[in-house]
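Human: For the file, kindly provide a plain-text protein record giving the amino acid sequence and the backbone structure tokens, at your earliest convenience.
Assistant:
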Amino acid sequence: MADLRTTYMGLELAHPIIAGASPLTADMRSIKRLEEAGASAIVIRSLFEEQIQLERIQLDEDLTEYNGLSPEIVTAFPRLKHAGPEEHLMWVRKAKESVGIPVIASLNAVSHDTWVEYASLLQQTGADAVELNFYATPSDASLASGALEDEQIAILHDIRQTVSIPISAKLSPFYTNPLHIISRMDAEGVNGFVLFNRFFQPDIDVAQEQPAYPLNLSHGGEYGMSLRFTGLLAGAISGDICASTGIFSGEDVAKLILAGAACVQVVSALLRNRVSHLQTMVAGLQAWMDAKGYAALGDFRAKLSRERSSDPWAYTRAQYVRTLMKPDPLNRGGRGRRI
């Protein structure tokens, strides 16, 4: 039987399938179910800057009741300014103490100081690593992309100087050049890269004429962007690659490892198919490896990366052109309908 063990950011994993941040990792009962189903690690649902700021605003409003009173009344409870986030921190600590698999904390902040402060506080919970979720929708047309990237690099630099546990960056594919920004982050000492973040997409309810906010789960096979950049980056950076989005089967996992991933994160596959689907995915990967005669993941990891592939253009524009230049790009064999 093949050995599925792998490492991610120095963390020892029983197999390469991690339960990503989601509602499933925000509840202790479902976290225990994930561990029982065989998750190799879990990423706790993110702590968001909005939670931190809302609690601070609420505290400011509450403290106005004490205006004109002795300063000691207000300063008697200095830790209350982080009451909401403190609850999240205590919960991460409880999760770490309750399971025997690696626990990765997750942070989605906005301001520089909040990123650094709360990355440090999450480290103090005992989490094995911190995932920095750089999800942000640009809303200022005057802000150049280079300035946004420079700010993220500055944030990572200061976090790396403050935090000693492994850190990963969960990224969007919508940088001008993802390879360049990832290389810069890699140089700052980021230990892992999650490729890629699935963006929240708003909708409009035309009946009610108001915004709608559906839960946008991925579907099987939507891993193409992750596969492309995993293949391009494997061997070119020091940090580990964790692929994400649209990974639903053991064979999907095998594809991303062939491209060069150390592991994968799954969320939609579990929300659509229940937590027990983890076992199906692990069994599928095991069966594929056994059928191929692979004894360990290292036997085929990055075998089809750009660095090692016999076709150096496999992940680039040349392959796109080659596909469209085929006599029958849809591969219908003459049996499909005319278009």
Notes: The chain is about 40% helix and 15% strand. The radius of gyration is 22 Å.
